[in-house]
Structure formats: structure tokens, C-alpha cells
Amino acid sequence: MEATLCSIPSSKPPPLSLRPQTLTLRSPSIINSKPRRRALPVVRAAISRTKKEETVENVKQQLESCYLVAGIRYTGFTVKQFQELRGALPETVNLVVAKNTLVGKAIEGTPWEALKPCMKGMNAWLFVHTEEIPAALKPYRTFQKERKLEENDFTGAVFEGRFYAPDEFKVLETLPSREEIYAKLLGALQGPAISLVGTLQAPARDLVLTLKAYVQKLEEEQSSGGATGTA
């Protein structure tokens, strides 16, 4: 019987080729093909400029119908203290934190430009929208004493176009109220002539305030009387 031999394929791996292989290197531009992000400093600068413009505009709005602007040194204030102070102020007084340069830009060319002597250090600004100046300043004095913030004093103020240094604030904090002016004027008019002479000899500022209040009172009475007569 004849045996048939079948060829069995060899399981050995093919011999290694000794030919040098060619490697294909990718170009660096292809490897780093991710799109580059736009530089952030340009965006940040635009945002910062917008915020500065908004701050200047806000200060200008606060200056409208404003009777007094005062600076407060706020170095060391916490966010909580600012919140507490804002809550203690009357509705006629607004507290704004702004850089001196921005406030200086807002007051440029206005009567409030007299505020520049206190443009040093870190200031918060009180915008008083009432004629009752002592009542507007008192809440901060109380806050200052209760929190023992002696170093955080007023840095200056402008009232009726004049700058008041920190050591002159007693003048502002003791101005007569509207009721006191009325009482003083009526007492002078109803009393003997010597009382009127004493009023006329008072400081010019008190006299102007007194006469202004009296004229306003007469105008209100005339206006009220005219309205009654036409009814």
C-alpha cells in the first residue's frame, strides 16, 4: 500500500525582512491641529473698561440733586460691615465704593471738583440727597463708635461748593435743622426788636439759611392759599 504524503504548511513565522523600512513623520502643524483660543487679556480689558464707565456714570447720577458728598476711609472694612452700614443709612443717603480716579473723572468740571483734596487712599463715598445734613451723617458716626473704627474717619466733604476737612466736620454735624430754623425765625419775629438784631448779627450762613427757609414758607402758604381760593 502506497503512503500518500501531504504537504503541511509550516507554522514558523516568515523570515524577517532585512530591508530598511521607511517611517512617515507627520508635520508639526498636523500634530497640533487643535484650534487656538483667543487671548483672554483683550476680553478682560474690555470688561474692565465697561465697568469703569458704568462706575463713572453711576457717580454722575448720584451727584444729581445731591446736597453733600463725603469720603470715608474704608481700609479694613469687611463685606459684612459694608452691608450693616448700608442698612443703617437712611433712604436719602447712598454709599458707593469707587476708586478715586473714577470719582475724580465724574466730578471733573463740576462744583464737586472741590472734593479732590481727599482723593487719597481707599475711599467709600456718601451721597446725601437731603438738606438735613446732621441726620445724614449721624448714622455713620454711630456705626463708627459701635464698631470702634476710629481710624476709618471721614476724609473730607463738599457742601455748597466748599471743601470741609476732617477737623471741620463738627460744623456740618451741628447745622440747624429746618424745624430749628423756623423756630428761630418765628421767635425773632414775634419777640422784641433785640431778638431780631441778634439774629441779624448771627453768622452769615445761619442768616441765609433762616431767610431762605422763611421765604420758602411764605411761598408755600401763598401757593396753598391760592389753591384754596380757586377751589
UniProtKB/TrEMBL annotation:
GO MF: rRNA binding
Keyword Transcription set for record: no
Any Pfam family: Ribosomal_L10
InterPro entries: Ribosomal_uL10, Ribosomal_uL10-like_sf, Ribosomal_uL10_bac, Ribosomal_uL10_bac_type
Sorted UniProt keywords: Chloroplast, Plastid, Ribonucleoprotein, Ribosomal protein, RNA-binding, rRNA-binding, Transit peptide
Name assigned to this protein: Large ribosomal subunit protein uL10c
SUPFAM superfamilies listed in its UniProt record: Ribosomal protein L10-like
Domain of life assignment: Eukaryota
Gene3D superfamilies found in the cross-reference section: 3.30.70.1730, 6.10.250.290
Xref: CDD domains: Ribosomal_L10 (cd05797)
Localization: Plastid, Chloroplast
One Gene Ontology term, aspect cellular component: chloroplast
Protein family membership: Belongs to the universal ribosomal protein uL10 family.
